[in-house]
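ligand=FE2/S2 (inorganic) cluster
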Amino acid sequence: MQHPNSNDVIFDLSPVKQMLTQTASLRGGLIPVLQQIQEYYGYLPENALEAVASVLGVPLTEVYGVATFYKQFRLKPAGRFVIMVCDGTACHVNGSSDILQTLSEELGIDDGETTEDRFFTIQSVACLGCCSLSPAMMINGETYGNLTKEKVLSIIAAIRENAS
Ligand code: FES
């Protein structure tokens, strides 16, 4: 499925309806539907959640309840650079909390938030699958390992410089 351009996000709900018809009849269909919507739009737009509630015949509060309960779901668009900070066991033992704190302080946002300029999003995640590099993070698909506070700050500085 192709990703929409930004203009489509607000107005074109036909992909949501298509996902609903495919998934709604499945048991426990709400979570897979929300996963598909997020995969398509990059987050869960408010009007998409309203469509889900209406088509599935469940209260909107229930849809929001699920969307806010699970960390995997995002209610706002992500930033241009999504920083996935691993908090799996190996990374946790090797200081992922310090990595997360360094990023939070440098970017002025908490885990799960996006900077006002929509440049960075921080998202803590379970194992990234590269435990030998712990602590590790992934930014837009690129893995960075054996992180230290200094290394994290220089990676962020390099991204800012290259993107400006
Ligand atoms: S625990 Fe972090 S990559 Fe596996």
